[in-house]
Write a structure and sequence with these properties.
Elements lengths: L23 H25 L2 H29 L12 H30 L6 H23 L7 H30 L4 H28 L6 H12 L5 E11 L2 E10 L5 H5 L8 E10 L7 E3 L1
Helix pairs in contact: 1-2, 1-4, 2-3, 2-5, 2-6, 3-6, 4-5, 5-6
């Protein structure tokens, strides 16, 4: 057989990863805005003595780092989309970026909690007016960033979802900082300022754990949701006496999956026949099907 004759059965493994994703440009804008506000809040927190404001600034620092990794991941995934060394394309680069960002968040959460406990034990004077003004500015920046990202919100894009959740968490910690500063200024609850720093650290840790679970499942080829696997099983078994004996489905990118299917039938058809039964809306872009004939002894099979 000439090499050229197998070309119709070959295909690339880019699966759209070479295309610029809808939220990439907006994410870059948010990174710049968050980074600038981060610098302002950290300097203001140190200058005006507000732990809540400093915690919010450090929180924004963690998000700036995580979002920066996301932007780099977008670029890298596009640039390497045709690299044959990636067996199923570069879709998992997004999840790897999210995992790295979550690790960074844990580190910043520990720093926030440590500094807040220190301030609880050794309070320092706070310039309330200036600190509140900076915190309000941070909240406005986060609100604008949230609106910007929500216009392109896609639950299947880990990078974009990560950016959106980061911004929402930033807005929450900014609100907590404002609440703490107002409580300290008008009611004398100075302890509220470092306490909100601890609350912010807990929120960051909780969010980080959720992101670690989500991204690690993709990186470790965790089985796709049961609903998707059931849809694949039903599509194949709806034709006759075919039965799915083995099924593995895992994510290889945002909303795209690979699948390995082993099935048995009394009168088996070609693998291509079964592949065409899978609806495109399922997002299964790479399928390997192994067909077993019930009339043959175990071990005799046709594979594709």
């Amino acid at each position: 057989m000439h090499t050229q004759s197998i070309h119709p059965w070959q295909h690339d493994h880019r699966f759209g990863q070479e295309l610029r994703r809808p939220g990439e440009r907006r994410t870059l804008i948010v990174v710049v805005l968050t980074g600038l506000m981060m610098i302002v809040e950290i300097i203001a927190g140190l200058t005006f003595g507000s732990m809540a404001l400093l915690a919010d600034g450090l929180h924004m620092a963690s998000h700036t780092a995580a979002l920066g990794i996301s932007v780099i991941a977008y670029w890298y995934a596009r640039r390497r989309a045709s690299d044959p060394r990636f067996s199923f394309g570069t879709g998992k680069v997004n999840s790897l970026a999210g995992f790295a960002g979550a690790i960074l968040l844990v580190g910043f959460a520990v720093l926030m909690a440590t500094e807040s406990l220190e301030r609880l034990a050794n309070p320092v004077p706070i310039a309330f007016g200036e600190a509140i003004a900076v915190a309000v500015g941070g909240l406005l920046v986060n609100a604008f960033s949230g609106v910007l990202l929500h216009a392109e919100h896609d639950h299947h894009d880990h990078n974009l979802r990560s950016a959106y959740l980061h911004v929402l968490a930033d807005a929450l910690t900014s609100f907590l900082a404002i609440f703490a500063l107002l409580s300290a200024k008008f009611f004398g609850f100075v302890w509220m300022d470092p306490l909100m720093g601890i609350v912010g650290a807990v929120l960051v840790t909780r969010w980080s754990w959720g992101l670690l679970r989500q991204t690690s499942r993709v990186l470790l080829d965790y089985q796709a949701p049961e609903a998707l696997r059931e849809a694949i099983r039903n599509a194949i078994e709806s034709q006759g006496d075919e039965r799915v004996a083995d099924l593995h489905v895992w994510a290889i990118g945002p909303a795209i999956y690979a699948a390995v299917v082993g099935l048995v039938a009394n009168e088996p058809k070609s693998a291509d026949f079964y592949k065409k039964l899978l609806p495109a809306k399922l997002g299964v872009v790479h399928v390997s099907i192994e067909v077993h004939d019930c009339s043959n002894p175990p071990g005799e099979r046709r594979a594709a």
